[in-house]
Amino acid sequence: MQYYDDLHQMHVEFGTQQCNVPTDERTRMQRGLAQLGEAVKDFSGCDLRMVFVHHPRSSTYHVEGRLKVPGQTLFTGDRDTYLDSAFQRCVHKLVQKVDGYKTHPDKDAQQKTKRRAALERDIVAPEDPEAGPLAESVRAGDYRAFRTALWGYEDWLRTRVGRWVQRYPEAQAQIGQGLAIGDIVEEVYLNAFERFGQRPTVVPFHQWLEDLIDLSMRLLLRHPDEERENASIARTVREAQLG
Description:
By secondary structure, this protein is of the alpha+beta class. The chain is 58% helix and 17% strand. The chain has a 5-stranded mixed β-sheet with strand order 1-2-3-4-5, with helices on one face. It is globular, with a radius of gyration of 20 Å.
């Protein structure tokens, strides 16, 4: 399960191994992340991944938490016979680590994050999907202008695509064997260009862009030759025009 905490600007993902977390328990966990969310609310675009592992032999639960803040990833975990107890202690440890990080932050990474957030505000400020520079490039059918306006997302999107590839063994096996990360990134941009007019404006732009990764991966795996050729041509044309 994954979701975006818009109040604290934090992307959250829950994963499980050898266990299922009931819906009501997941709801309580979401509420239990409020303290951590408050701790990172001044950082734009934090990523939190929590994994819940059940060990049948010892009848214990192991909770791992990885929190990506600007320039660093904070990691901790805890174990208990009760999942909720392990979860709460894990979250508390992450809060303590965030406090320690604030004492010695990566200022350069924070500035880059703020610039990306400012870029996003400039891009998606209009609630009307027909307004703004991206909409203008879509109306004009100018893919190069669309891509150029999104240059600030390039490194971030490549990182997110790299993580998603790990979830698709079939795609991971093809990387370097005819499929490149750049092809997948370009496929995401192509799908964003084609679907821009239908995007839900209530969803943050970067979240909408990330949601297109799954669609793009499935299209590439379903029609590999056709989609890969489209992405490759789009990237080649764009690079030639920029050159």
